[in-house]
Structures are given as C-alpha cells and as structure tokens.
What we know:
By secondary structure, the protein is α+β, with helices and mostly antiparallel strands. It has helices at about 5-15, 70-75, 85-90, 100-110, 125-140, 150-170, 240-250, 260-270, 275-290, 295-300, 305-320, 345-370, 400-405; strands at about 1-5, 20-30, 40-45, 50-55, 80-85, 95-100, 170-175, 190, 195, 205, 210, 225, 235-240, 325, 335, 380, 385-390, 415-420, 425-430. The strands form five sheets. The chain has a six-stranded mixed beta sheet, with helices on both faces. It is globular. The protein starts with a strand and ends with a strand.
Amino acid sequence: MIFVESPNDFKKLNDSLSGGTCILQIILKNKNHPANNEPILLLIHHVENSQTFVLSFGHPDCIDIDKSVLNIIANTNSKKYIIDHKNSLYFANFKNCIDIGWYLYSETLTSVSYHSFRYTDIRSIPLMNILKKFNDTLKNILNYDFSKIDKNSVHFEDSFSRALYGVEKNGLCVQNFIGDKSLINQSGLVHSQYNMFTPTSRPSNRFGNINYAALNKSEGQRDCFVSRFEEGALVMMDYESYHLRLFGNHIKFNLPTTSVHEYLGKLYHGKDNLTEEEYSLSKKITFNLIYGGIDEDIKNNVPFMREVANFVDETWKQYTNNKFVSTWYYNRKLNSCLFREKEKPYVVFNYLLQSAETERNCNILLNLNEFLKCKKTKCILYTYDAFLFDIPKDEFLLIKDLQQIMNPNDDFPIKTFVGANYGDMVELKV
C-alpha cells in the first residue's frame, strides 16, 4: 500500500496508471449531495500490479495532496472501474471509465457490495478502518469476470451518467421548500439525484426524502420550485403520447401529429368526435392493451394495435430463442436475469419501451446540455416524458431552439408550459 504524500509518490502512481486496469473509489466528506460536498480520500487499486494507492484531500491520518491531481488521474490511459461514475464527475472528468456497480446491476440485477461511508464527517473515521472496508470491496469486485463486457452498455452508462450529472448539478431554486431546509445551499438551490440502478435503466430521482420523479401537483408539492432569475420563468416541455410514438417511430408507423390518444379513441368508439369521458376511457384502454395484451377484435379494427401485437409476438420469439432482447437506440442486451419471474411477452415489450424512452432521453439531454453550456438557461429536471427548464427573461427566445433539439425530426410533438412556479403552469403556444 502506498500513501501518496509527495511528488515522488505521485509519479509512481501516475506511471502505474499509464496502462492496465484499476478500481477507484472517491470517499466524500459527508452524506450531503455531491454538488454540496467535497472529496476527502481517493482509493485506487491497480489490478495488474496488486498495488493500492491512498490519496488524502483532508483526512487527518494522512498528509494531504492537492485536489487538482484528480484531473490528472482522470485522464490517464488505464481502464478504470469506478464506484459511482456519475458522482465522480462532480470532481473530475473521468475518462476510460466503467461504473462497476451499474454494469454488474444491468447484467445481473445484483449490486457490488461496498461501503458508502455516509457519515456526518468521514474525517472522524480512522483511515485504517476505511481501508479495511475498501479491501473488502476489492475482494467482491475482483471475483467478477469482465472479459465479456458489453461495450454498448458501457457506452450507454458513460453517456447517461454525463447527461444526468448535467441536470443534477444545475439544482432547483426553491421558496417555502417542502423538504428539509438544510438541503438548501447558499444559492437557494436544492439538488435532485438520479438513480440508474433499475432493470430498464429508467431512473428514479430522489434525495433527502423528496421524490423528484413523482411530485404531486394536486397536493402543491411542485409549488415551491421557482426560477432563480429575477424576471425568469420555469418552462416545461412534455412529449405527447411518448411511448406510443416511440414504438410508431421504431416500426415507421405513420401516426398523426395530433393526439394519438384521440386518434386511437376514435377507432375504439367508432366515431369522429369524443367526449371528455370517452377520451379518458380511451387512454385507459390503450394502456391496458399495451401493458396487458391485445385481443383479436382490437387487432382487426385498430391497425396500430395490430402492429403492436405482431411486434410483441416476434420479439417474444427472439427472446425465447436468445434469452435477451436488444434495445432500440444503444443496442444494449436486456438479459433474462432482468425479468426473473416476469418473463411474459408484454413485460419484455414494456421493458423495451422504457429502455427506448430512457436511451432517447439520454441523447436529448446530452444535446441540451451541450447547447446550454454557454447560456444562462438551465435544464433542471427530467421526468420521463417531460423536461423542466429555468429560463431568464432575456433568453425566452431559446424556447424554440430547445423545442427543435427535443424534436429534431418533427416526429415527437411537444406541449410547452410556462409558469412562475412548477405547480402553476399554463400552455404556451410557440
């Protein structure tokens, strides 16, 4: 074990990381969100050399080294298996990285056993205790065989970690916050935290006991989120019938640019005009069909649903033969272990739909983050079929640009809403 406490020690580390494979864990100061936190330790194990390096950025049991070395380490040529890639991006732009925990979860639905050290202040924990926990983590990780690693999954994880980090770091401005007031930083912001550890990778999003993916509008849970700009506004862009259009786009089925639910409802009810009650019922019918199965009468009378049924049958044949299906955008394998006792044709289909939604949103977020990196406007929340922006008055004209990024080929219609807070928004015709 090498404690990196001098330029000569760091040279040994840097030379070692010029090649080979290493496992990294950043230990943060406390249990705060990474946006309001700082690294205290970096632990690195070089697999081929069987050497462990310890770098301290403030732990009392070791001489400190400057945090700027994180960027040097991040850019070394070694292949890096990192524990929590997304959180590490708050401190350095780690390259040649694989989130070891996410990769194993996405392949097996099992998690890497590691200690997250969520203490009030990690500096109160003796360094040797921390190193013992890290050695236990290494034993778990080194038992896995990564020779057949799926490059498409690695590419997706890297892209999605960066996309979600780009949203998280922007934070949400709050007034009369519904949660723990200690979560509000000096800029008046709170930060959400996306979790990619789900079978389809469709992320959950909660931090500090607030579920940002399911804020209840009717109970006023959205009202506390406001613009950070003096004359700004929150703007939400919401995809219309997203899952249905994802499938239609995938098989090149020509759906109308108007409401898909209305289009299908007219076929269900056999009439040209729907009442509000009939429209609501049509939405329920559609979701019951694509989640539970499509009967012969619907197949014969609703062409879109016939295509869904045929696709489900063909996909199920592929799955039973191969024990995996491939996602539509990143060509990742969804293996049989992800379904476990849920191996049914329409379950597999809906995993594909949720994966398609997530992968397309990943690409959209990357494009949005790139476009906005030199703007004041921030993308502050993403919730499956909707994106929330904080826009200052002098950048309102960017709304058209944002719509174009979200719907570049005019095949995913968007509804746009604007308001002084997230709970009180009205539709904006642009």
